[in-house]
Amino acid sequence: MNLVTGVTSLILLVLWVVAFGATVFALIHAVRQRAEAFTAVDKMTKPIWLAILAGAMVFLLLGIAGFGMLTSFIAIIATGVYLADVRPKIDEVQRGPRW
After folding, report:
1. Which of 24, 42, 80, 91 is the most exposed place for a label (fewest CB within 10 A)?
2. What is the Rg, in whole angstroms, of the alpha carbon atoms belonging to the chain?
3. In this predicted model, what pLDDT tens digit does every residue of 81-95 receive, in sequence order?
4. pTM score > 0.70 for this model?
5. Which of 58, 82, 83 has its CA nearest to residue 72?
6. Helix 46-64 and helix 69-81, axial crossing angle in degrees, nearest 10
7. Average pLDDT of 27-33?
8. Which of 47, 34, 49 has its CA nearest to residue 90?
9. Rounded to whole angstroms, how far apart are CA atoms 97 and 99?
């Protein structure tokens, strides 16, 4: 029984580290972008995204501290939306088309 608990805990820790790394990456990316790029691609403003991603980081820290997995899921969803939807459009508008 202890082996199963240990393996489960290890898997959850690895997933948490990946989620935390993705959130840190997204937050650093958002900080480095121009504020006009967010409104140019019809997304929320830069301060709002910074607050969302900083909140996601806090939620992840609360999740690892034992406040439940719901906070971690909220953080992962917020980070995923930024990385999958906002980041590619901001990169495209600042660099132009890639062809």
Report:
1. 42
2. 16
3. 999 999 999 998 888
4. yes
5. 58
6. 150
7. 96
8. 34
9. 6
